[in-house]
Amino acid sequence: MFDKILIANRGEIACRVMRTAKRLGIRTVAVYSEADANAMHVAMADEAVLIGPAAAAESYLKGDVILEAAKRTGAQAIHPGYGFLSENAGFAEACAKAGVVFIGPPVGAIHAMGSKAESKRLMEAAGVPLVPGYHGKGQTLEELTREAAIIGYPVLVKASAGGGGKGMRVVSEASGLAEAVASAKREAKAAFGDDSLLLETYLGRPRHVEIQVFCDTHGNGVYLFERDCSIQRRHQKVIEEAPAPALADETRRAMGEAAVAAAQAVDYVGAGTVEFLYQDGRFFFIEMNTRLQVEHPVTEMITGLDLVEWQLLVASGGKLPLAQEQLSRKGHAFEARLYAEDPSRDFLPAIGKLVHLAPPSENRHVRVDTGVRQGDQVTPFYDPMIAKLIVWDEDRDSALRRLRRALADYQVAGVTTNVSFLGAIAAHPAFAALEIDTGFIERYRADLQPPAAPVPAMGLAFASLALLLWREEDSARTAARSGDPHSPWHQTNGWRLNDDNHHDFRFMDGADERRVTVHFVADGWSLDLPDQTLSARRATLSGTTLSAEIGGERRTASVVRSGFDITVLHDGHAWKIKLDDPSATAAEREGGDGRLAAPMPGTVVQVLVQPGDAVTAGQPLIVVEAMKMEHAIKAPAEGKVAAIHFKVGDTVAEGVELLAFEVKE
């Protein structure tokens, strides 16, 4: 076994690997960019090496710099995590030449499976069932158009390299193919440095089922059962579970055996995942990920195994700890991916400071894998994952109940998150009833993303009570400084000189003004809210946790204040309001004032119109790339482009006006 390893990654996965390494007595070396100087993974490591500026291309993707750091610190091996260099054959080869062990598969296996097109050719030759499609080397638009016509529409355009939903487009008819191909090629080139594509038949309602495989250098190979990853948005996984529900045992076994055969066909070593589409009792090979997957914890929860420990053991030349017949699973597990993103804005990544971060308590049923702490910044430079929430119980229904509760208890303030969206999925009757496939989110979007609603009365009540209690704390401090035990500042009954005993609060809920008047009464308060009056008693505030009897019921929430911004966190909801902020302005209707702004910091990759062009509502005008994803800015209504302020290649800040637009009268 190794004495010291370097983790060539950041965030959650770097911290995850370090936890196992420390348990095994292995020293760890972190690498970090300038943006990550104070990151959690840097603090956890025994040593840390600065490798470059914030941009991943100048830091976490600089294989030569990382390899030099490994040699300089005496690390015997490099764990690449997932993403970045984890499936980079050139980096694995450089490690081998430098005498540093790459904790991953051989170079040949990465080459073979790193290209979706090449892997499909290999699997076809090995007899592994494939989705009908085209994975040839011809990449001109003419060739792809011809092959798409042969396959038939709808067709899935897919980047040959990489994953994570990047470079993937569904095309319903021939007229949309050219735009989809061009966009997918740009996105794939930016994310993976390879713009080659493949085409597949787009299955109507498939499930995404994947098999965890492990192989060693002694010829042994096993599968550690399956995971269902069907709940996806924009082709990216959102909630995963293990085992895959409602599968016949013979299907599970057939998929597992096919996955091991696929791995052994390329002389695979280490942890890998073979992914299949499953529909109507049949399964089809999609791709193999030659690394540890984001969702590996659900497999660990049902098997009781540490897959990182297995990786380290196999990479150091050891045999697999267990044979296939010795492996067993127990219970059911879910993983929910918590992101800083806005589901109401097509899951646009969010950035900002994690002003408040309070995950649910961990125990044998609940696990939280994270790489951030309260006070950390979510930056535009990297994937905006906050944490992975993993739950386990004896059966699916029990585990799902724990998932709902844990999501309701997960509190994040300071950035917009998908916590309530995840909670809506977990609570949806169709999810509980196993009506799952890759189209689940789109099919139930109206249920999962209801129209924005005003902050409810309970949210305003919590915010108002918190403000009162904060003022009482300020008064108590003032009285303590005065040294006068008879000071009226000691009173907390609403006493005022020559005034009625009440407080008026003015909140901005988006563009709407919400007023609350709190009257002091004999046993508490009476709250005049916009639509009703509620009584409140016995309110206590400990840190951010506020407990009170409101409307005759005892309730608890967290209330977080940052400047004028107040966030009330209650039962999985994050209600955001602003306190009487004179600088707050009414939210602009999209395009209502002729101003179309960048949704977040990024780079202009395409300008689709010219000044003076007449356009229709919904027509794409300009495309901005941020966090390796393309975001099209569309016309809010029929009108004319008045001016364009940026060209392709320009870097833009969040909120900057991209172009001027005149709405047709």
TrEMBL record:
Assigned keywords, A-Z: ATP-binding, Biotin, Ligase, Nucleotide-binding, Transit peptide
Keyword Transit peptide: yes
Listed name of the protein: Acetyl-/propionyl-coenzyme A carboxylase alpha chain
Cofactor(s) required, per the database record: biotin
Gene3D superfamilies according to UniProt: 2.40.50.100, 3.30.700.40, 3.40.50.20, ATP-grasp fold, A domain, ATP-grasp fold, B domain
GO molecular function: ATP binding; ligase activity; metal ion binding
InterPro entries cross-referenced by the UniProt entry: ATP-grasp, ATP_grasp_subdomain_1, BC-like_N, Biotin_BS, Biotin_carboxylase_complex, Biotin_carboxylation_dom, Biotin_COase_C, Biotin_lipoyl
Domain annotation ATP-grasp: ranges: 120-316
Domain Biotin carboxylation intervals: 1-446
Record domain Lipoyl-binding: where: 587-662
Claim: ATP-binding is one of the keywords in the record: yes
Organism domain of life: Bacteria
Lineage: Bacteria, Pseudomonadati, Pseudomonadota, Alphaproteobacteria, Rhodospirillales
Originating organism: Paramagnetospirillum magneticum (strain ATCC 700264 / AMB-1) (Magnetospirillum magneticum)
